[in-house]
Amino acid sequence: MISRISGLFAAIAFAATLAVSPLTVSAQAADAASAAPAAETVAAPAPAAEAAPAKPAENPYGLKALVMHGHAVDQAVLVVLALMSMGSWYILFVRLWDTHKLGKEAKDVRASFFKKASIAEGVKSLNETGAFRYIAQAAVEASEHHEGALTENIDHSSWVTMNIERAVSEVNSRLQSGLGFLATVGSTSPFIGLFGTVWGILQALTAIGVAGQASIDKVAGPVGAALIMTAIGLAVAVPAVLGYNWLVNRNKAVMAQVRAFSADLHGVLMGNRAVKR
User: Fold this and answer.
1) Are 103 and 24 members of one domain?
2) Are residues 207 and 76 in the same domain?
3) Which of 31, 122, 185, 258 has its CB 3.0 to 4.6 Å from that of 116, i.e. a possible disulfide?
4) What pLDDT sits at residue 186?
5) How many helical (H) and strand (E) elements, i.e. helices and strands, does the chain have?
């Protein structure tokens, strides 16, 4: 009897164990499933920070590299071309202003000078530092002071004409001052740039000979400097030539007005009109 009761309790205990075991296994599986995403979240690598934009590489064969690290001959050629360019632009702007001012003065003279009551009043109405005032004063002084042992052999009209033409020539010389420099720059700067080109090619050939092979890194630098010199020489020459031609044409137009004024003034002075001071 006792043995039967003991076997019954053992069977009940075994059944209870089987009932509890599936619940435990399922709970452990649920815990493992919930823990897996967390582990994946922790284990996932953080996104990399956005890379900063890379700076553009400097051109090792450009103008900046030539100025900073070029040969002494290349830098000397650049300095010469820069001075020629600055001188050309300075002369161009100054002479353009002079011709503009003289042309404006010519319009004012045509409108008012010969309407004055006397030449003396007309001279006083002119700009004190202007070219027309200088010509008028030279003409009046020559008309009033035709004297001396040597000038007695020259008639009055020829004497006044000579002085007027001398004054006009001086005005023309002032306007043409600097044009010779423009012509020199326009004709020589391409050859100066070509000298830099020849020097660059010579450096390239020397580098090839020393290295024993014609690699691109041995040729690119000197040849690049040579091409830059050619371009700069042309950039200096073209404005100088154009400016020279432009100024020559403007000078011709302005000096035609100056000579017309001089001829009219000579006619008035030869008309025996009194010059009052």
Assistant:
1) no
2) yes
3) 122
4) 93
5) 8, 0
Among 32-36, 72-76, 100-104, the range scoring the smallest mean pLDDT is 32-36
Q: Are residues 206 and 155 in the same domain?
A: yes
Structural domain contains residue 175: yes
Instruction: Count Cβ atoms below 10 Å from residue 74 Cβ, excluding itself.
Output: 21
In a domain, 43, yes or no: no
Confidence of residue 129 (pLDDT cuts 50, 70, 90): confident
Q: Which residues span the domain enclosing 30?
A: 1-34
CB-side neighbour CA atoms (13 Å) of 37: 4
pLDDT score for 29: 42
Is there a contact between 268 and 178 (Cβ–Cβ < 8 Å)? Answer: no
pLDDT in tens, 52-86: 555 555 555 555 655 565 567 777 888 899 999 99
Q: What is the pTM assigned to this prediction?
A: 0.68
What are the CA-CA distances from residue 94 to residues 84, 134, 175, 176, 178 (Å)? 16, 20, 10, 11, 10
Question: What is the predicted pLDDT for the residue at 239?
Answer: 94
**115 C-beta neighbours (distance < 10 Å), count:** 10
What type of residue sits at position 4?
Answer: R
> Number of structural domains, the chain?
2
Instruction: Decide if 77 is inside a domain.
Output: yes
d(CA 8, CA 161): 158
d(CA 232, CA 85): 10
pLDDT tens per residue, range 152-198: 667 778 888 888 899 999 999 999 989 999 999 999 999 998 888 88
Q: Interhelix angle for 216-269 vs 131-144, to 10°?
A: 40
Task: Return the closest-CA partner of residue 236 out of 179, 185, 178.
Answer: 185
Q: What letter represents residue 19's amino acid?
A: A
Question: Quick one: which of 106, 160, 99 has its CA closest to 133?
Answer: 106
